[in-house]
Specification:
Elements lengths: L1 H15 L4 H17 L7 H15 L1 H19 L5 H8 L5 H7 L4 H6 L7 H17 L2 H8 L4 H9 L18 H12 L3 H11 L3 H8 L2 H12 L5 E4 L15 E10 L6 E18 L6 E9 L10 E10 L6 E2 L12 E12 L13 H38 L1 E2 L2 E2 L4 H29 L5 H26 L13 H12 L4 H17 L3 H9 L3 H27 L14 H25 L7 H26 L7 H25 L3 H11 L11 H12 L3 H7 L13 H25 L8 H10 L5 H18 L10 H11 L1
Parallel strand pairs: 1-4, 2-4
Antiparallel strand pairs: 2-3, 3-7, 4-5, 6-7, 8-9
Helix pairs in contact: 1-2, 1-21, 2-3, 3-4, 4-21, 5-15, 6-19, 8-11, 11-12, 11-15, 15-16, 15-17, 15-26, 15-28, 16-17, 16-23, 16-24, 16-26, 17-18, 17-19, 19-23, 20-21, 21-22, 22-23, 22-24, 23-24, 24-25, 24-26, 28-30, 29-30
Length: about 800
C-alpha cells in the first residue's frame, strides 16, 4: 500500500513539474528498486525487461525516432494544414511576450512584476501638460461635428506646428521621437475632448507612411519625407482597404504591373522617360485623412509578367508612396463616419505609372508589403484604438460618477440606487481593465517587443469595453445624453462606436480567428516548432518538439486535476493579502487553458482553424487571463492602494469569471463528447466555482466614482478636465463639490419642510424664507443658491429654434424626396 502511494506521489510530482524523460526513467527505476529492496516485494525479471525496453525507446534518440516519433512525423506532415504566404507572414510577424507565459500553464509572476513600469520623460510630460492641454482647450466638439464637419483651420495649424503628426518620427528628422507610452497618453487625453481631433493625430502616428518609412524606407525616402511629415508639411494617409477586401486585406484586388513608362514628377516638374516602374490601378475606400492627404501610402499586388525584375511573376503585396498631386491619382471626396468629422474618404486611379523608387524601401522591398503591414499593425493596434477606448472609459467614469451623485430622484442621488450602481461598477471596472491592459502592452512595445497577439486582444477587448461603458453611461444619464447639442458630452462617442469596432481588423474576425489562431501557433511552446520542422522536413527537430509537447500535455493534465481538486489553495503566489488568491486562480486557469488548447488541437487537428466559435472561446480564455494579470500588475505598480482594492477585485474577478464561462462553453460544444466529459471532470471537479464580483464590491466601485478621492483620481488620471463652469464637462466638478458641501443644509431644509415650518411652496421661496427667518445664514443661502444653479446647469439639455438650419433642411429634403 505504501509503495503504491509512493508511486502515485512520484508520478504525480514528475508530471506536475514536467520532468524530462530521463528523470522519469530514473524515478521509475528508483521506485522499482525500492519495491524490491526496501519493501521486499520481488519485481519479476519480465517487468525489468519491459521497463528497460521502454526506457531505451524513450531515451535513445535514434531508437525513439525509429519506433515512435518518426511514424508520428509522417502522419503529422500529412495532416498539418497548408498555410498561405499571407498566413505565414501574419504568424511570423511580431513577437511573443507575457502571452507565452499564459500559454505555458505556469505563469512566472516574478517576471510579470519585474517588468519596468511605463513612465513619461520630463519632455513627454511637458508636452502633455503644455501643447496637448492647449489643443484640448481649442476643441469644440459640437462645432466640429455639427457645424464645420472638420477641425477649424487654427486647430489644424496648431496640430501641425507643434509636431502632433510626428510624435513617432525620430528627432534627427525633426520629430518628437516619443515613447509608445507617451504616444498613447497624448491620444488618450485628446480623445477625452474630441474624437475627430484624436483620430487626426492618431492615424499618422499609427499604421501609415511614417511608421513604414522609419522601419523600411530608403535613406533618400527618410531624408525627404520624414522631416516633412514631422512638421505637418505633408499630411499622410495609407490606402489598404478596398470595397472588396476589408477583413481579408490580403485579397486586395488592386494591382500593379512592372513595365517601362514615362512620368512628370509632380513636385519638381521634371520629366522622366523610359523609366522602369509599375503601372498601378486601385480603388480604395474608408481611408482616413485621404481627402486632405498630400502623400498617399498605397498597397497593391505587384506582377512582373515580362520578368523585368527577375524570374518571379507574382511579386506579392507591395507598398508605395505616391504624391497625391501625381497625374492619375484621384482623391478629395470624403465619407462621413457616423458621429465624427475626421477626414476619411476614397481614392482611386487607373493605370497610374510610378517609378520603382517610390516603393517604400525601394526595389528590394517589392513584394514585402504584407510583412511590413502586419509587423507595423502589431504596434499600431496596441496604441490607437485601445487609447481611444481608455479615453472613453475615463470620460464615462468621470462624467457618470459626478452626474449620478448630482442628479437625484425620489430624494436620493441616482447613483445610490442599486440598478444604477450596477451599471456604474461596470464603467469603473472596465476602465480599470482597459488602461491596465494597454499599459502592460505598452511596456512591451517600449522594451522592443512587437506583441502581435496582445495587440489583437487589446483591439478587440478594449473597443468592446468602450461600447459597453458608453451604453451604461448613456443609460445612467438618461435624457441628458439623448438630446444632441453642445451640452451632450457622450452622444458623439456613442454614435462613433461602430468605427472602432470595425476598423483595424473587424472585432468578429479578431475574436473568432486572430487572437487564438495566431496565439496558438506563436505562443504555444511547441506547436510552431513542430510546424516548422514539418515544413522543413526536419525529423530531428520534430523529435525534440513532439517529446517536449507530450510532456507538456501530461504535466498540464496532472496540474489541472490537482489545482482543480484543491481549488489552487496550495499554489504559490508572489504576493500576500488581497491579491494572493487571484494569482493562484490565474495559475489554475492557465494550466486548464493550456490543456484545453492542446486537446482542441489533438481532437480537431487542422479543422480547428475553421471551428471559429471554439477558437473564439479559446481566445476569450487567453484574453481573460491577460486582462486579469494586467490588472494585478497595475495594482502593484500603483503601490497596492487599499482604496483601489474594490475596483481591482472587480476587474480581476470578472476577468477570471469570463475565462470560466469560455471554458464551460468550449466543453459544452467540443465535438468529442467523451473527451469533453473527461476534461470537465479534470478541470472542474467541483463544478463552476468562480463567481463574478459581488454586488458589495460593485457598490464600492460605484461609490468611489461618485466621491472625490484617490480611486476616482487614478481612474480618470490623464483626461482633459476643463476648468470653466461654462463647459458641460467642466461644470461637473464644480457642481459635485458644491452639492457635497451644501448637503447638510439641504437636509436641514427638507426636515423643516416635513415639520411644516414653511409658509411658502417652492424650493426657491422656502430657501429665501429660511434666510429671512434666521433658519440659515447668508453664507449658507449663497452656497445653496450656487449649488442649485450648478446642478441645473448639469441636468439641462440643449434646445434649438424649431426651424432647422440650412444644412439640416437640405438633408431632410433628400430624405423625403
Amino acid at each position: 500500500m505504501i509503495a503504491a502511494v509512493l508511486l502515485v506521489v512520484l508520478l504525480g510530482a514528475l508530471a506536475y513539474f514536467a520532468a524530462p524523460v530521463l528523470v522519469w526513467t530514473v524515478g521509475v527505476a528508483a521506485w522499482l528498486a525500492a519495491l524490491q529492496f526496501v519493501f521486499h516485494c520481488p519485481v519479476p525479471v519480465a517487468a525489468w525487461a519491459v521497463f528497460a525496453v521502454v526506457a531505451a525507446a524513450l531515451n535513445i534518440v535514434p531508437l525513439r525516432r525509429a519506433v515512435f516519433t518518426g511514424p508520428v512525423f509522417g502522419v503529422f506532415k500529412k495532416i498539418t494544414p497548408a498555410m498561405s504566404q499571407t498566413e505565414q507572414e501574419a504568424i511570423n510577424a511580431g513577437t511573443v511576450w507575457w502571452d507565452r507565459d499564459l500559454f505555458s500553464g505556469k505563469p512566472d509572476y516574478n517576471r510579470l512584476l519585474s517588468f519596468p513600469d511605463p513612465k513619461l520623460t520630463p519632455e513627454e510630460q511637458a508636452f502633455i501638460d503644455g501643447p496637448t492641454e492647449q489643443l484640448c482647450g481649442m476643441i469644440d466638439d459640437w462645432k466640429i461635428t455639427h457645424e464645420l464637419k472638420d477641425l477649424p483651420p487654427e486647430v489644424w495649424q496648431f496640430i501641425k506646428d507643434h509636431g502632433f503628426l510626428g510624435m513617432i518620427v525620430k528627432k534627427k528628422y525633426g520629430g518628437l521621437e516619443f515613447s509608445n507610452y507617451a504616444h498613447a497618453k497624448v491620444v488618450t487625453k485628446i480623445a477625452t475632448r474630441g474624437g475627430t481631433a484624436a483620430v487626426t493625430v492618431m492615424v499618422p502616428n499609427s499604421l501609415g507612411p511614417g511608421e513604414l518609412l522609419q522601419h523600411y524606407g530608403t535613406e533618400a525616402q527618410k531624408d525627404y519625407y520624414l522631416p516633412r511629415l514631422a512638421k505637418g508639411v505633408e499630411v499622410p494617409c495609407f490606402a489598404l482597404t478596398s470595397p472588396y477586401a476589408g477583413s481579408d486585406a490580403g485579397a486586395i484586388p488592386d494591382y500593379g504591373v512592372v513595365c517601362r513608362g514615362s512620368y512628370t514628377h509632380p513636385r519638381t516638374g521634371e520629366r522622366f522617360e523610359n523609366v522602369l516602374g509599375v503601372r498601378v490601378s486601385w480603388e480604395k475606400r474608408w481611408i482616413t485623412l485621404a481627402p486632405v492627404a498630400t502623400i498617399l501610402g498605397l498597397a497593391f499586388k505587384m506582377y512582373d509578367p515580362e520578368h523585368l525584375l527577375g524570374d518571379k511573376e507574382d511579386i506579392g503585396i507591395t507598398c508605395a508612396l505616391v504624391p497625391t498631386e501625381h497625374e492619375g491619382v484621384e482623391i478629395g471626396r470624403r465619407h462621413f463616419p457616423g458621429g465624427s468629422a475626421f477626414m476619411n474618404g476614397p481614392t482611386w486611379g487607373k493605370d497610374v505609372f510610378i517609378p520603382l523608387d517610390w516603393i517604400i524601401g525601394g526595389r528590394e522591398y517589392a513584394g514585402q508589403g504584407w510583412r511590413m503591414l502586419v509587423e507595423c499593425l502589431s504596434v499600431g493596434r496596441c496604441i490607437s484604438l485601445p487609447a481611444m477606448s481608455v479615453a472613453c472609459g475615463k470620460l464615462t467614469t468621470y462624467t457618470t460618477g459626478a452626474f449620478a451623485r448630482i442628479r437625484d430622484q425620489f430624494g436620493l442621488p441616482i447613483g445610490k440606487f442599486e440598478g444604477v450602481d450596477e451599471a456604474m461598477a461596470r464603467i469603473g471596472g472596465f476602465t480599470y481593465q482597459m488602461e491596465a491592459s494597454q499599459d502592460l502592452a505598452l511596456t512591451a512595445l517600449d522594451n522592443g517587443e512587437k506583441p502581435s497577439v496582445l495587440s489583437a486582444i487589446l483591439k478587440y477587448h478594449n473597443t468592446e469595453r468602450m461600447r459597453k461603458t458608453l451604453n451604461d453611461a448613456m443609460d445612467v444619464h438618461g435624457g441628458k445624453t439623448v438630446v444632441l447639442g453642445p451640452r451632450n458630452y457622450l452622444a458623439r462617442g456613442y454614435q462613433a462606436v461602430p468605427i472602432g469596432i470595425t476598423v483595424e481588423g473587424a472585432n468578429i474576425l479578431t475574436r473568432s480567428m486572430i487572437i487564438y489562431g495566431q496565439g496558438a501557433i506563436r505562443c504555444h511552446p511547441f506547436v510552431l516548432r513542430e510546424m516548422k520542422s514539418a515544413m522543413a522536413n526536419d525529423g530531428a527537430e520534430f523529435d525534440k518538439a513532439i517529446t517536449g509537447h507530450i510532456n507538456f500535455v501530461i504535466s498540464n493534465f496532472v496540474r489541472s486535476l490537482w489545482l482543480g481538486l484543491t481549488c489552487a489553495r496550495f499554489a504559490s503566489s508572489p504576493k500576500g493579502g488581497a491579491t494572493a488568491a487571484y494569482y493562484k486562480r490565474v495559475t489554475r486557469l492557465s494550466s486548464a487553458f493550456a490543456l484545453l488548447s492542446d486537446m482542441a488541437m489533438f481532437s480537431l487537428g487542422g479543422s480547428l482553424k475553421f471551428r471559429e466559435k471554439l477558437s473564439a472561446r479559446l481566445g476569450d480564455m487567453l484574453s481573460g487571463l491577460y486582462i486579469a494579470t494586467a490588472s494585478l500588475k497595475r495594482f502593484e505598480r500603483e503601490g497596492a492602494p487599499k482604496e483601489d482594492i474594490a475596483v481591482m477585485s472587480w476587474a480581476v474577478e470578472n476577468a477570471l469569471y469570463d475565462v470560466q464561462v469560455a471554458m464551460d462553453g468550449f466543453l459544452a460544444n467540443l465535438p468529442s463528447r467523451p473527451l469533453a466529459w473527461v476534461l470537465r471532470r479534470v478541470i472542474f471537479p467541483w463544478g463552476l466555482t468562480l463567481k463574478p464580483a459581488s454586488d458589495r464590491v460593485g457598490t464600492k466601485v460605484a461609490r468611489a466614482m461618485m466621491e472625490p478621492g484617490a480611486t476616482r483620481d487614478r481612474l480618470t488620471h490623464g483626461m482633459y478636465v476643463p476648468k470653466s463652469e461654462a463647459d458641460p464637462v467642466g461644470v461637473l466638478e464644480h457642481a459635485l463639490h458644491a452639492i457635497l458641501a451644501t448637503e447638510p443644509v439641504e437636509q436641514k431644509l427638507r426636515k423643516l419642510a416635513r415639520d411644516g415650518k414653511f409658509k411658502t411652496i417652492t424650493a426657491r421661496e422656502r430657501l429665501a424664507e429660511a434666510l429671512q427667518t434666521g433658519l440659515i445664514n447668508q453664507e449658507e443661502f449663497d452656497a445653496v443658491t450656487r449649488a442649485r444653479k450648478l446642478k441645473r446647469d448639469v441636468i439641462m439639455v440643449d434646445d434649438f429654434d424649431k426651424k432647422l438650419d440650412q444644412h439640416d433642411e437640405q438633408l431632410l429634403q433628400r430624405l423625403i424626396f
